[in-house]
Amino acid sequence: MSQITEDRPATEHPDERGARVFPLVAVVALLAVAAVVTGNLPIFVFVVGIVGMVMIHEAGHFVTAKWSGMKVTEFFFGFGPRLFSTRKGETEYGVKALPLGGYVKIVGMSNVERDIDPTDEPRTYRQQSYPKRMLVAVAGVLTHFVMAFFLLFLIWAVIGVPELKPEVGTISKLEAGPSPAEQAGFALGDRILSVDGRPVKNWESLPPYIRENSGRPLTFVVERDGRPLTLTATPVDRDPSEAVSGFIGIGATPFNERQDVVSAAGRSAKDVWNISVTSVQALGSFFTPGSISDYAGQLGGDATKADEEKRFLSVVGVGRLAGQAAESGYFNLVYLLVVLNLFVGIFNLVPLLPLDGGHMAIATYERLRSRGGRRYHADVGKMVPVAFAVVMVLVLIGVSALYLDIVDPIDNPFR
Questions:
Q1: Which end of the chain is least crowded, N or C, by CB within 10 Å?
Q2: DSSP-based helix, strand, coil % in the chain, nearest 5
């Protein structure tokens, strides 16, 4: 949420700032054009969504800190060397070289900060009331829930939910070129009655069964021109580099079912709750002894399908997942942003520094220890080793997730 750095005024001449802004804008514009030309616009939109998610989170801290009368000296996207900055009032806004997040610097986030102008002390974070400090700390987390709700509402009310109900089991998509379906003799309009003797009641149950039986001949009974026909197709692993398994080349064309405003709002709220509960359960289960042992086994090359569902994704993994979601339509791409928003929000509630939950925990602890109108200030310096340990754990998870995403990418969940 914040970064303790030495204050320094932005002394760049406007022409110098313009000289730095132009290359930055030009690079972004070129990336957008390249995304359109190469057909990767959905991925570009997803990346822009991630950047927006980060900055809206920081804007939550920024707005509530300003409203509470605190002194905010910096509001930046990225870390490291400045690429561009401008000052308005007492706050410097800008972009830094490493796009690894963003931060808002609020004066006096802890009693570790000593070099503060005495005239600024009444406006420091540490001198504010408990409600104001909690508001600033929780504001960033709340933005994720608001964004998730808005995106879900967009899905239900505007984009629509892909449904496959009208013609259950009817093939309306057939992969062009050599494919197991073409070799088996499937045709558009075939209605799948059963697979391996199992009745096909909806399309949702079909892809998982095909993926689970990759490499094994499957017997399909289809209806063509009013008569049953038996076809045999063997699912294959089409693209090992993308972990695409269980492919035969058939599908159904969904239609988008939209809901009215009231129903969309209610369903969005329900989904926010359900995804949040799932995120909490996933986060809690990951840090159990058994899960940590399983994760170590994955690093050693011993992974199962169930293990893949219990691991973090790196930037590479999320990028690959975004590409796979984009191929399946904007619904899955937007839904992926929803899940990421809520997971980041839940993760930030963990009551350890440097996460927002750590600031909330300290503020609550100080409030409970205060007596008789005398304000208690926790010695944050004693918590620095814990914060350092948390950062190291996060780095370890990030590096190991990057390794797994490169050598053992997860299966495409959108097929």
A1: C
A2: 55, 15, 30
